[in-house]
From TrEMBL:
Record GO terms (molecular function): fructose-bisphosphate aldolase activity; zinc ion binding
Enzyme Commission code: 4.1.2.13
Gene3D superfamilies: Aldolase class I (3.20.20.70)
Enzyme class: lyase
Stated name of the protein: fructose-bisphosphate aldolase
Binding site for Zn(2+) 2: 105, 142
Family label: Belongs to the class II fructose-bisphosphate aldolase family.
Positions bound to Zn(2+) 1: 84, 189, 223
UniProt organism field: Occallatibacter riparius
Function as written in the Swiss-Prot or TrEMBL entry: Catalyzes the aldol condensation of dihydroxyacetone phosphate (DHAP or glycerone-phosphate) with glyceraldehyde 3-phosphate (G3P) to form fructose 1,6-bisphosphate (FBP) in gluconeogenesis and the reverse reaction in glycolysis.
Keywords: Glycolysis, Lyase, Metal-binding, Zinc
Amino acid sequence: MPLVSMRQLLDEAAKGGYGVGAFNVNDMEQIQAIMMAAKETNSPVIAQASRGARKFAEDLYLFKLIEAAAELNPDIPIAMHQDHGNSFETCKSAIALGFTSVMMDGSLKEDGKTPTTFEENVEVTRRVVDYAHERGVTVEGEIGVLGGVEDGHGAGGTGLEHITDPDQAVEFAERTGVDALAIAIGTSHGAYKFTKKPDGSVLKMDVLIQIHKRLPHTHLVMHGSSSVPKDLQDIVNQYGGHLKQTWGVPVEEIQLGIKNGVRKINVDTDNRLAITGAIRKVFAETPEKFDPRDYLTPARAAMAKVVAQRMREFGQAGHAQDYKAIPIEEMAAGYKSGKLDTRPSVAAR
Ligand code: 13P
């Protein structure tokens, strides 16, 4: 099956009342792990690449890996998404490569660190929406600023500094026409999100619920949504790692989000931890080994296990064959005719 529009995956998820994990890909083992999990659970797939991933793997290697995944798994719909595009040009180059979805993170300037003004964010996101929709490609925007830093992208901090203002979220959705909207509710990228199990003072699920009530037709996205489970931290530390104890986003909070309009859930750190723990274990237990396959095979299996678990928890499991892929040109026609317009003033009619 050719790559599928992310918008279609999210529309189907909304109809079915489930969420779809978006898992980061940097290399062959990671896309293989995602596909192993998708096959096991019969799930639709969102694979995403950051700018750092595109640089690390080189665009063409990376994209060909995703194409191989699609060719080898014709029964599984796969959307390929640019994570945290920092400019119009980054999004344009992802679309030229064949990505079916882009995130224009206009909440930060092109340096990926400095917050922009609301007007700057609207302007660059609107420009990407016009360009992408003409080509049938999905757009995710961001309003509010996430904490943490990922692949050099992020304002740092705890994530509580720039919680999304629901009024601004509504205005942003109206003025940009994004398909999906990442909101800041206190999560941050990376392992160190919370110093204890988060409650409502640091994880603002109430803000998410308010935004969904006002924007029922815009798919919400939760970034920084690794759960950072203790067992994965323990394996890393047991075999020589030095992680400070930390808490991520509890799965039950994500499930509450899914009941309230969250359709895309970004997970990267949990997979990194699973891979690192598995590799450390092989190095520690069998220091005589030096064939990469000896440690990459268990690393891939460890990531596949985490991804399969998330696919079940997010509810996407069992939904891979619910629908036929809409060709990307047909999506472009849908945007042109206004059928896929998500702006609150239009979609509510
Ligand atoms: P985590 O660091 O929580 O996995 O978040 C990843 C992410 O949001 C990618 O955009």
